[in-house]
């Protein structure tokens, strides 16, 4: 961490120097002007006997030094120095709320404006603006569900994930209300607070699963003491689903027979879940859904919840502001002694102006700012990955949406095993202009997909392994000598040849200086400097081998005829 990284506003240090020089110069100029005026009265010994004691002998250089030092210290205080760390806690009044958002393709239907998903986001924002919740968790679901944010008081984190929510986040087509309700119930049950617990599920209800599963999930929520509110979005008339085809052109979603899909709002499962849980169902036809949700949850018990807001560096501006004020008080006292017989002069104006400037510094809110990226980088280097991810998330939520900030956030998410969200963020950075950053984006994108592929069962790892192979192709084309990329690339190929996992193979001899990747070997993290000795010819051989493997896999899939779609072939 550099010395400048301990300041909230490093640029203010230059202003501190300018302020110090300006105050010193002004004090010396006033002193020279006073001496010129005294010289007009007569020669110096005679004038000295006529003036009050101490006035003629007052040194302008000492006064200029005091004011310059005071200005320098004030400028450093304004720069916001911080060091040391302190834990902060936030106490809030309310209940715990989990919001489960349907992120399936059918939520892109435009029977409501701008579409079902965006309308649902608007209702969630309005609900949060109404208050009453202490902590909020966010779940996205389609064919499966997963937690976007755990229970948190960090509104910026919830806003960040909510803004970026789209069908590509979940990755598995279809809709599963039962899974979302079960996961929301589990997330709320894991909290230790004594406050009430509520789960809000927002969906168009077009789920292709047995009603009995949804009812069982609703009963489980009731047994866990969770207040369930289901909210419908859409119209029964329905609408087509606009998508982007493989060529990047606008198109409409079609079913397995090539017919254009028309998605309809289906309230049956939503109503069944609410009835089973003893909760509330809010139909899509109802207006002001946020207020109705708030009213439905009015009976949920609220309490005061203390939640840790993490560690941050301690503000130290007062260490510089206090001596600056003392110097100004000293200067005021010395000046007052000298001017009792002559009233207030220009010198007093300098002191008063400087004191006013320091008062403004003392009350400015900039004296206590959030941590900068140096904290997050330090936490990552110390392997405090959850803390690093939280800090980078705050940086992005505070408005820094630069590719570097998003890349850092995604890299920290990979370290915390939040692989799906990390991959979604990195996928949006693959066309960044900076070649070094683009290389790292592709490397970490491949790493996120590869780790997911290694963790999935054999019959569902193919898509993640394919994505990892494609990413490492790009890395090897950019840097053919990257041994880490070559290792991960070959590891993905090996797992894919074996059906996405399972036995067989085995690693090379440990004495071999270039061992083949073993199935149990973890993917490597990207290194600051490229390592390894893979030549361009070897990289081309790897790419050609990958192309052959992909053709074989696609041919096998076509023969087997086993599309990865939900039951009934309905993947929206």
Key attributes of the depicted protein:
elongated; 572 residues; single chain; alpha/beta; seven-stranded mixed sheet; Rossmann fold
Provide a descriptive summary of the structure in words.
The chain has 572 residues and is α/β, with parallel strands linked by helices. The protein has three domains: 3-81 and 316-367, no CATH class; 88-307, 3-Layer(aba) Sandwich (Rossmann fold); 373-569, Tetratricopeptide repeat domain (Serine Threonine Protein Phosphatase 5, Tetratricopeptide repeat, Alpha Horseshoe). The protein is built from 20 helices and eleven strands. The longest helix is centred in the N-terminal third of the chain and has 29 residues, at 11-39. The protein is elongated and about 110 Å long. The model is unreliable at 341-370, 500-540 and 553-565 (pLDDT under 50).
């Amino acid at each position: 961490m550099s010395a400048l990284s301990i300041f909230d506003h490093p640029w203010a240090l230059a202003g501190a120097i300018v302020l110090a020089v300006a105050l010193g110069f002004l004090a010396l100029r006033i002193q020279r002007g006073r001496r010129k005026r005294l010289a007009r009265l007569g020669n110096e010994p005679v004038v000295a006997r006529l003036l009050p004691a101490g006035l003629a002998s007052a040194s302008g250089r000492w006064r200029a030094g005091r004011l310059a030092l005071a200005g320098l210290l004030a400028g450093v205080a304004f720069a916001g120095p911080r060091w040391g760390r302190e834990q902060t806690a936030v106490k809030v009044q309310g209940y715990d709320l989990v919001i489960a958002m349907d992120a399936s393709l059918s939520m892109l239907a435009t029977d409501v404006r701008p579409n079902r998903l965006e309308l649902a986001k608007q209702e969630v924002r309005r609900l949060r603006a109404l208050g009453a919740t202490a902590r909020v968790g966010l779940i996205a679901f389609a064919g499966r569900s997963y937690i976007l944010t755990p229970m948190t008081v960090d509104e910026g984190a919830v806003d960040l994930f909510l803004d970026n929510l789209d069908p590509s986040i979940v990755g598995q087509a279809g809709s599963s209300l039962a899974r979302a309700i079960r996961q929301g119930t589990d997330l709320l049950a894991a909290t230790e607070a004594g406050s009430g617990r509520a789960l809000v599920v927002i969906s168009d209800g077009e789920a292709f699963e047995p009603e009995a599963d949804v009812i069982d999930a609703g009963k489980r929520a009731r047994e866990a003491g969770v207040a369930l509110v289901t909210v419908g979005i859409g119209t029964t008339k329905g609408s087509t689903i606009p998508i982007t085809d493989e060529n990047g052109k606008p198109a409409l979603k079609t079913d397995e027979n090539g017919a254009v899909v028309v998605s309809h709002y289906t309230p049956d499962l939503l109503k069944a879940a609410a009835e089973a849980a003893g909760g509330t169902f809010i139909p899509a036809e109802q207006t002001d859904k946020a207020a109705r949700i708030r009213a439905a949850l009015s009976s949920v018990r609220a309490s005061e919840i203390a939640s840790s807001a993490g560690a941050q560096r301690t503000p130290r501006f007062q260490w510089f502001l206090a001596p600056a004020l003392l110097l100004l008080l000293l200067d005021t006292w010395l000046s007052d002694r000298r001017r009792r017989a002559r009233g207030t002069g220009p010198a007093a104006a300098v002191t008063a102006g400087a004191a006013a400037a320091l008062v403004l510094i003392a009350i400015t809110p900039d004296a206590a700012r959030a941590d900068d990226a140096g904290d997050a980088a330090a936490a990552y280097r110390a392997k405090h990955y959850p803390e690093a991810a939280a800090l980078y998330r705050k940086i992005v939520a505070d408005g820094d949406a630069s590719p570097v900030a998003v890349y850092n956030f995604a890299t920290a998410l990979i370290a915390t095993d939040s692989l799906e969200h990390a991959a979604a963020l990195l996928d949006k950075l693959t066309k960044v202009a900076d070649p070094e950053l683009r290389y790292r984006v592709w490397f970490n994108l491949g790493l996120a997909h590869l780790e997911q592929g290694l963790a999935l069962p054999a019959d569902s790892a193919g898509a993640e392994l394919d994505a990892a192979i494609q990413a490492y192709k790009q890395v090897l084309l950019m840097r053919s000598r990257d041994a880490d990329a070559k290792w991960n690339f070959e590891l993905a190929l090996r797992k894919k040849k074996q059906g996405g996992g399972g036995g067989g193979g085995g690693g090379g001899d440990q004495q071999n200086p270039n061992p083949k990747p073993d199935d149990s070997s973890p993917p490597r993290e990207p290194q600051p400097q490229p390592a390894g000795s893979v030549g361009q010819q070897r990289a081309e051989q790897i790419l050609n081998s990958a192309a052959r493997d992909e053709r074989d896999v696609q041919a096998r899939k076509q023969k087997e005829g086993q599309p990865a779609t939900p039951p009934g072939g309905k993947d929206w």
